[in-house]
């Protein structure tokens, strides 16, 4: 069975269709990339999976299924529970997503606390394991986002996404070229090591 199945997806805005008849199937352990130019609908496709579309864009027709469940028929609360637990995002610009005056460790802890029943000590240990997996030092735990650009992927990995790892990242915009390659490679290696996690990359075509 496919973990993520998108069938005949049409996304529409007030200006007209922005995604037409999209089909994507991803099985456990697979890594796919959706490549396109700016404005081709990549980001909107990604946001539609997690029910994060802006008010000006909506799903006109089609199906989005996660492990056989129709995401489009779930309630808002049910889809909120999936985000961070079964669906993980790495957004294009981490600076606009993460709170700049809260330490990295605390933000990662908040994610685990919201989606997993773990004691504080266990959460801290898991965070340190995650940092180690993506080749970041434990000192990152007490730093702020602006002090460690390349940590952006770790908060999403910390969610412990059970089924679908959905990476919506254009690292070239938020990182230098070396940091971009390093962060993406570490993130991909971490998920592949689990083997059960499919990945969907959304890549900007310059």
What does this structure look like?
With 206 residues, the protein is of the alpha/beta class. It has helices spanning 42-49, 76-82, 104-115, 120-133, 152-157, 171-174, 177-194, and strands at 4-13, 16-26, 31-36, 57-66, 69-70, 87-88, 164-167, 199-204. The strands form two sheets. A four-stranded antiparallel beta sheet has the order 2-1-4-5, with helices on one face. A four-stranded parallel beta sheet has the order 3-8-7-6, sandwiched between helices. β4 (57-66) and β5 form a beta hairpin. The radius of gyration is 17 Å and the shape is globular. Mean pLDDT is 77; it is low at 157-164.
Entry summary:
With 206 residues, the chain is of the alpha/beta class.
Put simply, the count of helices is 7
Query: Which value, in Å, is the CA radius of gyration?
Result: 17 Å
List the secondary-structure elements in sequence, H or E. Answer: EEEHEEHEHHHEHHE
Strand content: 15-25%
- Provide the structure class: alpha/beta
Sheet with most strands: 4 strands, antiparallel
Percentage of residues assigned to helices: 25-40%
Name the overall outline.
globular
First-to-last CA distance: 34 Å
Poorly predicted regions are: 157-164
Number of strands: 8
**What is the averaged pLDDT score?**
77
Provide tags for this entry.
single chain, 206 residues, alpha/beta, four-stranded antiparallel β-sheet, four-stranded parallel β-sheet, 7 helices, 8 strands, 33% helix
